[in-house]
Design brief:
The chain contains 17 helices and 14 strands. By secondary structure, it is an alpha/beta fold. The two termini are 30 Å apart. Bound molecules: N-(iminomethyl)-L-glutamic acid (NIG) and fe (iii) ion (FE).
């Protein structure tokens, strides 16, 4: 990850949604002329030239972990935490995820769709062209399906690429907490009804579980994810976010595509990820917003050979930011990553965290034309002007997504 392959004086040729040439202007012109010779005689006249001189072009950013389908924002909890309340303490009193669940269940699909659509536009403003979105604030069959249908709708109507994840195992819902075996009954409902329905209706690519002491145990996580894998879903885990509990080791063992959070990962967890192809997705905005000082050990992970990605974790409770470049800033300033590392972590490795490493996240021939243009003369300015919106335009599959 030391070398992001930054080059100067480069032109990029795009045709039919794909990058077809990267090199000097002459190289690109030659490649486009080849395409013209093999087809449409009007082709050259239709070409559009965009002068990017004095600016930076990167792959469109990949935000590989968000919870963008929710209703009411939870700014009340931010103040409670400032006054000393803990994240888990707020959740145990019926706030946190439960509060978002109560709210989402009362909302119509159209209402959630309008909210989610507007949020994607905000994410896009900061350079993101691929976004993973999880369900997880429904926690009943009908409300999880409602959330996943919202994700399917934005997937079909938005210009950016949307990757859907089922997170029915985000929490044990309050309506299953009364009886002695409520927990067991909810997990039974997940594996025998929710997951099969989600898989049958093809509403998700990934299945995710919040594996954390006080939420889902290691054994429960394993049972849920093994069922998901059996139903054809690929796997993700919220692992070792607040306490080390073997989540990273389980992710590696199950061959999960990514293990996410990892602020409390153990030495054994680092070793397990380093010797696997599971991507370590770090979400430092979450620790920042929760006011916690411990951040994921990015240096140890990178130096041991793990694949490290960065994402926003955009959600109403622990990370309400759509700004992925701000996460790069935290990566450099708090996780001691280099600029090359944070650029790769939000492009190439973010794509790997979504199983898309062969098609997006790089400016290279054959890759999807997912490109971001920045009001910067040097790539190091992207994490430097922190909180600023320096992205002036993006394209996904060659089509414009965002223009400043
Ligand atoms: O990734 N860790 C679990 N889920 C979310 C937050 C959920 C919430 O508080 O609404 C996260 O941090
Ligand atoms: Fe999350």
């Amino acid at each position: 990850m030391a070398d992001a392959g930054i080059r100067t004086e480069v032109a990029v040729g795009i045709d039919d949604g794909l990058i077809v040439a990267v090199g000097t202007m002459t190289d690109v012109e030659r490649e486009l002329a080849n395409i013209e010779r093999s087809g449409d005689s009007e082709y050259h006249a239709q070409c559009e030239y965009i002068d990017c001189a004095g600016r930076v072009v990167t792959p469109g950013l990949v935000d590989s972990h968000t919870h963008a389908v929710f209703g009411r924002p939870r700014y009340d909890e931010q103040e409670l935490r400032a006054a000393g309340a803990g994240y888990m303490e707020i959740a145990q009193k019926g706030g946190g995820i439960h509060s978002s669940v109560r709210d989402l269940r009362l909302r119509s699909e159209d209402d959630l769709l309008a909210l989610t659509r507007a949020r994607l536009q905000r994410l896009a403003r900061y350079g993101t062209t691929t976004v993973e979105i999880k369900s997880g604030y429904g926690l009943s069959i009908e409300d999880e399906l409602k959330s996943l249908r919202v994700i399917a709708s934005v997937q079909s109507e938005a210009n950016l690429r949307v990757v859907p994840t089922w997170l029915g195992a985000h929490e044990i819902p309050q309506d299953y907490r009364s009886g002695p075996d409520g927990r067991r009954r909810y997990i039974e409902q997940l594996v025998s009804e929710q997951l099969p329905t989600v898989a049958r209706e093809k509403l998700a690519i990934f299945a995710d579980v919040f594996c954390e002491p006080g939420v889902f145990t290691l054994d429960e996580t394993r049972a849920i994810l093994e069922t998901a894998r059996g139903r054809g879903l690929t796997l993700k885990l919220h692992a070792d976010e607040l306490e080390p509990s073997g989540g990273a080791e389980l992710a590696a063992e199950l061959g999960a595509t990514s293990a996410d959070h990892l602020a409390a990962i153990s030495e054994a967890g680092i070793a397990a990820l380093a010797s696997s192809s599971t991507v370590a997705t770090l979400l430092p905005g979450t620790m920042f917003f929760l006011g916690r000082t411990r951040q994921a050990p990015a240096r140890a992970l990178i130096e041991s050979g793990a694949v490290v990605a960065l994402a926003t974790d955009f959600n109403p409770g622990t990370s309400p930011t759509p700004n992925l470049p701000l996460i790069m800033t935290i990566g450099v300033s708090q996780l001691h990553m280099s600029v090359a590392e944070v650029l790769l972590a939000t492009t190439v490795n973010g794509a790997a965290a979504l199983g898309l490493a062969g098609s997006t996240g790089q400016i290279a021939s054959g890759f999807s034309a997912d490109v971001a243009l920045w009001e910067c003369e040097d790539a190091r300015e992207i994490p430097y002007w922190y909180g600023d919106a320096r992205c002036v335009a993006t394209w996904c599959r060659g089509e414009p997504v965002h223009t400043a």
